[in-house]
Amino acid sequence: MLVLYMTNYLIKAAETGTYIVGFASLRSGLEAVFGPMAVQPFASQIYGIYTGFVYFTPFFGGILADRVFGQRKTVVLGAVLMAIGHFLMAFEKFFLVALVFLILGNGCFKPNISTQVGRLYEQGDPRRDGAFTIFYMGINLGAFFSPLVCGTLGQVYGWHYGFGAAGIGMVIGLIVYLLGQPYLAPDSLMDRSAGKKADEPLTAKEWKAIAGLVVLCALNIVFWGVYEQQGNTIQLFADQNADWHVFGWEMPSTWFQSINPAFIFLLAPLLNMVWSKQATKKKEPSSVAKMAIGCFLLGGSFLVLMYAVSGVSLTTKISFLWLVGCTLIYTLGELYLSPIGLSLVTKVAPARLVSMLMGMWFLSSFFGNYLSGYLGTYYETMSKESFFLMLTVLGVISGGAIFALGAPLKKAMGSEV
What we know:
The structure is a single chain. This protein is mainly α. The protein has a single domain, classed as Growth Hormone, Chain: A (Up-down Bundle). About 75% of the residues lie in helices and about 0% in strands. It has helices at about 1-15, 25-35, 40-55, 60-70, 70-90, 95-120, 130-155, 160-180, 205-225, 235-240, 255-280, 285-310, 320-350, 355-375, 385-405, 405-415, and strands spanning about 240-245, 245, 250, 320. The strands form two sheets. The protein has a two-stranded parallel ribbon with strand order 1-4. The protein has a two-stranded antiparallel sheet with strand order 2-3. The radius of gyration is 21 Å and the shape is globular.
């Protein structure tokens, strides 16, 4: 909803005199670096900066949990900040202030929710990858309903209703989390069961594991730069170049964002079964190999859109089913990479630094999301075929790099990955 809100309403309102705190300064700063920008490139830059910083702050939220508050209190703090941010989004004047609250809230929330899933399992428990896939399904249950509720309210009744509904949803989520406290693993500021203090020096083996994670995080940047186009340029493509009519009724284009989580819900259990069968035959790909496969699938998904738009005039709208096919493939890629990466961090990170290193994992998404915004600035200057080809090439290159470095990464992080 964010990109459509900016391109269809907010930026035009600011240009016609609506005051938005800090907006003029942000635009002048970006244009000093990138030159004058039309509405779409400016919106893409804001999207990239915002979604990037959403994944920058978890590193510090992890430190806050490891050293000060613990995971549970930090998650509650994050949820409260995000709820405030969503409600502030209902007032265009506070647009940038709202984004700051969302960025800070997510920084507290995201790494510590993921860490608590890993703490439910003993080291070496083979169910951990599957548990993170189930956890990922839970995330995407919300991601499925939010475009249907918030997107519809925003597009049909007014953007402020959509953002207000997101705030209500965040409050409900916080209540559910608080009620579920008894079912979580014990929370602590350090892994006392391991007998290690928070400031105890890292061993050589732990340093190698961290170095392996850093390399893998760097390789993930390109994956997220391509993948996050789904909320940026691909959403614009869905809004402007796809036909959403079904039996004479036109669906809101924001419903496109529900396709990906719906596929996650459908495909995650099937992939878990496939991996379980492979594990019994000792043929399951390693975590690193799965992530390489995910990148290849991501790159290949945009070949569908390349084919769909080839030879089609700019004014012709393609069936939304082409977008469904593309989404199916990159969703498989996401399932091979994202939940596996979350599980991987909890496997190899030193227990007393696990939240911080989970934040470091999300740091790769910071750079990837900003890359997404930067790549999006070429959307209107390149042909659609060329733009989708660029995304395909980048996805395949990142997968090839992870595959080529698979053996040294496994050696650094341990045979279990």
